[in-house]
Amino acid sequence: MKVDDSSHEKENKPKAIIVIDSLIVITIIFALIYTYFINSQLLLKILVAIMLVITLVWLLIVKTKKDPNEEFNDTKINKLVLLDHEGESLKEWYIQGIPSMLIGKSSPDHEVDIDLSDVDYASLISKEHAVLNFSSGSWFIEDLESENGVGLRKLGERSPQKLQSDNPSELHFGDMIFLANTRILVK
What keywords sit in the KW lines (predicted)? Predict the structure, then answer.
């Protein structure tokens, strides 16, 4: 299984944020030293004080603002829901505690974990279309070189991104999986 490149970016992101936050703090300290110890203009001191309060309030809001996906961590994903055209639930598969699930179409000589043989667009689903794997506390989906591909629309995004074969993509609560024209919601 390949490692998702986005996990590498997530590891480097906090270091960059720490550096930027440190530079902001250093700049504010130098501005305060100049304004209140070197400069003698009262108007400048008042303007800097107002800007400092505004900056601190903004930083407080930004730092305490929660990511919409944060409250739904990957350990809370426990099922997949097959949706119809109106968004109504047709089937559910509980996946919590299962390490891997094959998605496709079952036949007498071939069985899959998530059988889409009876969906409206079953003719567009490959026998082994995709696989879900649970690894390091997260769920990943991978296209198994299916004929019509796998799309993934992340929560809050407008359109799905087509997955590359043999390149697992991490799933999060609220993501939508597209297998040809079939939609499966991650819950």
Answer: Membrane, Transmembrane, Transmembrane helix
2-57 confidence digits (pLDDT tens)? 444 444 444 455 788 888 888 988 988 888 888 888 888 889 888 888 888 898 88
Long-range contacts of 110-115, Cβ-Cβ distance < 8 Å, separation of 24 or more? 114/80, 114/184
- Pick from 127, 121, 187: which is nearest to 113 by CA? 127
Q: How many CA atoms lie within 13 A of 174 on its CB side?
A: 11
Residue 101, phi then psi, degrees to nearest 5: -140, 130
What local confidence, expressed as pLDDT, does residue 75 receive? 45
The answer to whether 168 touches 2, Cβ cutoff 8 Å, is: yes
pLDDT tens for residues 144-158?
A: 999 999 999 999 899
Strand order in the sheet with 138-143: 114-115, 100-104, 128-135, 138-143, 169-171
- Which residue do the tokens 């986005």 mark? 6
What does pTM read for this prediction?
0.61
Across the beta sheet with 182-186, what order do the strands follow?
89-94, 79-83, 182-186, 176-179, 150-153, 161-162
Rounded Cα distance between 178 and 180, Å, is 6
3-state class (DSSP) for residue 131: strand
177 phi/psi in degrees, rounded to 5: -100, 135
